[in-house]
Amino acid sequence: MSEKQIAKLAVSAAAYWIDKPYDYLVPEKYRGAICPGMRVLVPFSRGNRRCEAIVLSLSDKSEYSELKAIDRPLDEKPVLTSEQIKLALWMHDRYFCTVYDAVKAMLPAGLWFSADGKRKASDKTCEMLTLTAPTEDILAIAQGRKRKAPMQSALLELLCQTGRVSSKELLSFTGASRQSLKALINEGLVATQTVEVFRRPGEWVGETLPMPVLNSEQEAAYKGMNELLCSQKAAAALLFGVTGSGKTSVYIHLISSALGLSKTAILLVPEIALTPQMLSTFSSHFGNEVAVLHSSLSVGERYDEWKRIKNGTAKLVIGTRSAVFAPCENLGLVIIDEEQVDSYKSENSPRYHAREIAKYRCARSDALLVLGSATPDVESMYAARKGRYSLFELHERYNEMQLPDVRIVDMRRELRRGRGGNLSLELQNELSANLSRKEQSILFINRRGANKLISCPDCGFVYKCPNCSVALTYHSSKRRLICHYCGYTRPPDSGCPDCGGLLSFIGAGTQLIEDELKALYPDTEILRMDTDTVRESGSHDVLLKRFEKKKIPIMVGTQMVTKGLNFENVTLIGVLSADQSLYCGDYRSGERTFSLITQVIGRCGRGKKPGRAIIQSFTPENEIIKLAAEQNYEKFFETELRLRSFQETPPYSDIIAITASGVEEGTVLRCCGDIKKLLTASLISRADARILGPAPLSVVKVNNRYRYRINLNCRADAEMRRIVSAVLIKCNSSGAYKGVSIYADNNPLD
Questions:
Q1: DSSP characters for 566-608?
Q2: Is the peptide bond before 522 cis (omega within 30 degrees of 0)?
């Protein structure tokens, strides 16, 4: 054995500008006990502050003569595989984050330690009981104790019937005390064994169903993708199918094929609301081989599901964005459903996109990546048309029903007719018709609360957040004005605080629409689904089950109601303020609007009854609105691609955004100016790069911090990332910008 063993560590306390592998000496008593993928406790910095670190590799050499020693290991065995360590290092280079930030994104919260040094979730165990002698002998003993020790007799008799049972259940069924059970254990009649049990968010107890029958289009798509899967080479496919075309059935067959090859699979969904529905569907075919991962699970449930995946008990993982990191061994298939949705992009460090992580994992594991959508991301469709992805299409709905009949209502005409409400006469007539037929309707408006703002028409006063550069949103149910960025809240005044005039309520949100519906249909139950009601009910699933089982006539909601929901009795969709998201200044605004409208329209007419949709717009002549009404993705894609080419935005060029935020606006702007100078000097030889800005973000101040950004339009290759990384390190480590936070993001959402 070498005289010394060196561990290269990623240290949790290291900021991005000093993040690197640090060499530490492995104490002799821990040699053999510490290995790559384990966490350890180490002294760090001049003050030797104790902090966590992850072991990246072991060596017998170091370029440094004097090394600090590891205090002690924190794990008994590795929590990361060698492949996961490589992924963390790749994320560090690509997403301008520390290695430890990447590690924390991969591991469940239950594995981390609280301030007192205890793990946030402990292993749950159960005491199991068995008999130590033949059943006949124990029954004889039980009979002999019926008079003197009736509780001991009852315990023994029940154990004879069950053979093996938990102590908790045994005591519960018999009503006996722990003392009676302990006497039998001490006597040697009953043996105990501590076994690990898993906290399950939804254990499947029903019968498994046969594979769904595929139509000819689905069969062709499945066969083509299954051929890629069976080749066991890295591949990517785009499944482009209209809403209701049965993409889920194709997923089920592909997953079954992957499991048949002794592979594991991951299925990502964009919203937590879709997880229970997906979990039920896939568990009915794959039983308890399914694990679920999302942020609504308790710390213990998420930790136990992670353990089931890691030990190979669960072969299929269903979850939201972070489930892409599930510790699946022998990964064969990753499916991203509704792959165009923004929620797959993380807005906190590490600022990754689940699609890029999935590509990396599939490339390393020789697995198949399937991207599914009725409105694919423009970049994904571009890659498919260029031959980088295989393209499979489903043109018809599974039940052969027609796509919904869609009409656009010009809300300017409604105003000219003296109708100032948020529900057009045409939409009201359709709602009334649905109520008479006992059919259900969904109304979509992408804003929660009652009113966008409250203002004074006399002097122009508007309630604004004191911490953020936004107007406060009025919530009628709480009678409060709330900032949706920092949470600041206050009650409105009876009159204008500046001039005493009457206040005007402007704009509409889900609460106001709910109130209007209740006024129009006082005897009709209305269900509202937005962040506020989900928080109150405790779950998306609670509201969706109520809507389905109680056949609630009308549901009004935000983006939560636009994707993946499948209710046969929904025959009417109303899209309110359809043009609301069109004019936000983001190059993706047209794509988002088209996708949202198309997706929500697809929620109706999924059963035997035909569907209708009403789109309300103040700009009905807008091409995006018209193409969404026609469900014409092909023409939208061609139009959008021409615009992206002119703008030099993805897929023709990447955008690396460098954002600076701080309390002093002048300091932030000076920092941005220096960033621009550094970039300009570094990019002299890069003709493909354009530097834009600095410019304020759409909401320039959040939580009393000003935010400005420089956009770098370029090809985001390794050289460009090194240049950006060097700029981040230089500016973050400069004393001139104390209190300014600087970070970079690839193709940001805003």
A1: --TTEEEEEE-STTTTTTSS-TTHHHHHHHHHHHHHTTSS-SS
A2: no
pLDDT of residue 538: 56
Token pair, residue 192, equals 């105990």
Q: Could you tell me the pTM of the whole model?
A: 0.87
- Beta-bridge partner residues of 638: none
What is the per-residue pLDDT across 249-304, written as a single tens digit (0 to 9) for each? 999 999 999 999 999 999 999 988 777 778 888 988 998 899 998 877 778 888 88
Rounded to whole angstroms, the Cα distance separating 502 from 458 reads 8
With left for phi above 0 and alpha for psi between -120 and 50, is residue 38 left, alpha or beta? Answer: beta
Residue 334 CB neighbours (<10 A): 30
Q: In this structure, what token pair is assigned to residue 488? A: 């600041």
Q: Are 4 and 64 in contact (CB under 8 A)?
A: no
Comparing CA positions, the residue from 128, 127, 114, 291 lying closest to residue 202 is: 291
In our burial notation (b when 16+ CB lie closer than 10 A, e otherwise), range 271-294 reads bbbbbbbbbebbbbbbebbbbbbb
**CA distance linking residue 120 with residue 117, whole number of Å:** 9
- For residues 395, 401, 407, 408, the Cα torsion angle rounded to the nearest 10 degrees is -40
pLDDT, average across residues 642-664: 93
Identify the H or E element spanning 53. Answer: strand 49-59
CA nearest to 235, candidates 336, 57, 369, 129: 369
The residue among 588, 110, 102 whose CA lies nearest residue 346 is 102
The pLDDT assigned to 564 comes to 67
| β-pairing verdict for 22-25 and 6-11 | antiparallel
What's the pLDDT at 664?
A: 93
Dist CA 594 CA 342 (whole Å): 14
For 438, the token pair is: 């006992």
- Is-contact 470 485, C-beta < 8 A? yes
> How far out from the chain centre does Cα 98 lie?
21
Residues 529 and 714: their CA atoms lie apart, in Å, by: 40
Q: At what angle do helices 150-162 and 135-144 cross, to 10 degrees?
A: 160
Q: What is the mean pLDDT of the chain?
A: 89
Structure tokens at 293: 């991962």
Query: ∠ at Cα 199 (339, 122), nearest 5°?
Result: 105
Burial of 523 (0-12, 13-18, 19+ CB in 10 A): exposed
Contacts 24+ apart (CB under 8 A), 680-687: 682/723, 682/726, 682/727, 683/714, 683/723, 686/714, 686/720
- What is the total residue count of the chain? 750
Gap between the Cα atoms of 246 and 217, Å rounded: 10
Of 171, 169, 158, 151, the closest CA to residue 131 belongs to 158
| Residue 494 CB contacts under 8 Å (≥ 6 apart), including other chains | none
Computed from CA positions of residues 46, 50, 56, 59, in that sequence, does the dihedral angle turn out positive or negative?
A: positive
pLDDT in tens, 128-177: 888 888 888 888 888 888 888 889 888 888 888 888 888 888 888 888 88
CB neighbour list of residue 638: distance below 8 Å, 6 or more residues apart: none
